[in-house]
Design a protein that fits this description.
transmembrane; transmembrane helix; single chain; 3 helices; two-stranded antiparallel ribbon
């Protein structure tokens, strides 16, 4: 079995839906994901309005995908080619095990 990982993509909430529509263009790689509302803090934030600037946090979405590590470069290349935004931060973490509770582990 190939080495599995979690690809996390942090993106502005107003363009998260567009990014997800681009991810669905590659169903042979992206079979599902989780999208979580989040807040962004730090010096690299792009405030969309005065409320975000006062609060010191931007409205973000965190898109999480569990997939083979070898497919991460393909997804990132697809995003760079099809999705024109510099406001897309990602990171990759190893996934030791994944699956549905009650059905056993899918990946060990």
């Amino acid at each position: 079995m190939s080495e599995m990982c979690q690809l996390s993509i942090n993106i502005s909430s107003d363009i998260a839906e567009e990014l997800m529509s681009h991810l669905w263009l590659i169903p042979e790689i992206v079979t599902g994901c989780t999208c979580i509302p989040a807040q962004g803090f730090g010096s690299h934030q792009h405030y969309r309005n005065i409320q975000e600037k006062i609060r010191g946090a931007t409205e973000r979405n965190l898109i999480l995908l569990i997939l083979p590590l070898a497919t991460v470069p393909l997804i990132l290349a697809h995003i760079q080619k099809k999705f024109k935004s510099s406001d897309c931060f990602y990171w990759v973490l190893p996934t030791i095990a994944s699956g549905y509770a009650g059905q056993g582990k899918v990946n060990e």
